[in-house]
């Protein structure tokens, strides 16, 4: 029983490059959530997606960040033109039922370092 | 004031000790509360929900004081395997279960 799988676990980018983080939810889960943990801070909600739909992106920065969860394949969190302040751990979670019930299961995170 | 603030720790205790973690939250509209556990470089995992009446799960007891906006976790008879970072988590998303805000965590080390 594979849990939430995230890759890459570690990613280094130079300022201005793009970062793509992937998340495969628990098998059978169709609800995915992304969280960000800045240095010296706790995790904070970014976006909630269901297959092919963004349900809630209220925690997502307005520019340079986007997320998708296509019908086939993993969820992708994309950060364009990265800046040093994007350096953080990005955690993905999934749930079997929707965003109003059910336990969230987290992945081990992807750690982005921007040089 | 930070949204979720925890004891900075770290806590180092001997096996069998009782240890308590405290947490405060700033948003009085917060709806639900949890304690998560995170082992080093691993994913956060739900330890227990926190109910208004207080709740217990084996050696773990969680308490909530809405008036003071304060949450606590008590671990009795601590085991080596309890060594981890304990995260206080608050849901500020109304009826959602996903708009979670995590505290920075408190590191616990249980020593033989």
Give the overall form of chain A: globular
C-alpha termini separation of chain A: 36 Å
What are the segments of chain A in which pLDDT stays under 50 over at least 5 consecutive residues? none
> What's the order of the H and E elements of chain B?
EEEEEEEEEEE
Quaternary structure state of the chains depicted:
heterodimer
Q: Could you give a short account of the major beta sheet of chain A? A: 7 strands, mixed
- The mean pLDDT of chain B is 91
Largest sheet of chain B, in brief, is: 6 strands, mixed
Structural category of chain B is mainly beta
CA(first)-CA(last) distance of chain B: 37 Å
Average pLDDT of chain A, rounded to a whole number, is: 92
Q: What value does the Rg of chain A take, in angstroms?
A: 13 Å
Helix content of chain A: under 10%
Structural class call of chain A reads mainly beta
Structure write-up:
The complex is a heterodimer of chains A (115) and B (112). With 115 residues, chain A is an all-beta fold. Chain A is built from no helices and eleven strands. In chain A, strands 2, 4, 5, 6, 9, 10 and 11 form a seven-stranded mixed sheet that branches. The mean pLDDT of chain A is 92. By secondary structure, chain B is mostly beta strands. Helix content of chain B is 0%, strand content 54%. In chain B, strands 2, 4, 5, 9, 10 and 11 form a six-stranded mixed sheet that branches. Chain B is globular, with a radius of gyration of 13 Å. At the A-B interface, β4, β5, β9 and β10 of A face β5 and β10 of B.
């Amino acid at each position: 029983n594979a849990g939430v799988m995230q890759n890459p676990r570690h990613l280094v980018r130079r300022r201005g490059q793009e970062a793509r983080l992937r998340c495969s939810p628990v098998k059978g889960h169709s609800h995915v959530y992304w969280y960000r943990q800045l240095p010296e801070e706790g995790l904070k909600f970014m976006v909630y997606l269901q297959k092919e739909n963004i349900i809630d992106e209220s925690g997502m920065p307005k520019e340079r960040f986007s997320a998708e969860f296509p019908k086939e394949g993993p969820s992708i969190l994309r950060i364009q033109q990265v800046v040093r302040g994007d350096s953080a751990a990005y955690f993905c979670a999934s749930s079997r039922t929707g965003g109003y019930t059910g336990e969230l299961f987290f992945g081990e995170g992807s750690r982005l370092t921007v040089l | 004031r930070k949204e979720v603030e925890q004891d900075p720790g770290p806590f180092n205790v001997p096996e069998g000790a009782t240890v308590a973690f405290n947490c405060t939250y700033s948003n009085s509209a917060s709806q639900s509360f949890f304690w998560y556990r995170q082992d080093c470089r691993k994913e956060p995992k739900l330890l227990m929900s926190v109910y208004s009446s207080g709740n217990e799960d084996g050696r773990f007891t969680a308490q909530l004081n809405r008036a003071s906006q304060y949450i606590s976790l008590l671990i009795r008879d601590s085991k080596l395997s309890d060594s981890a970072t304990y995260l206080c988590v608050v849901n500020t998303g109304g009826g959602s279960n996903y708009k979670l805000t995590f505290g920075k965590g408190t590191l616990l080390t249980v020593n033989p």
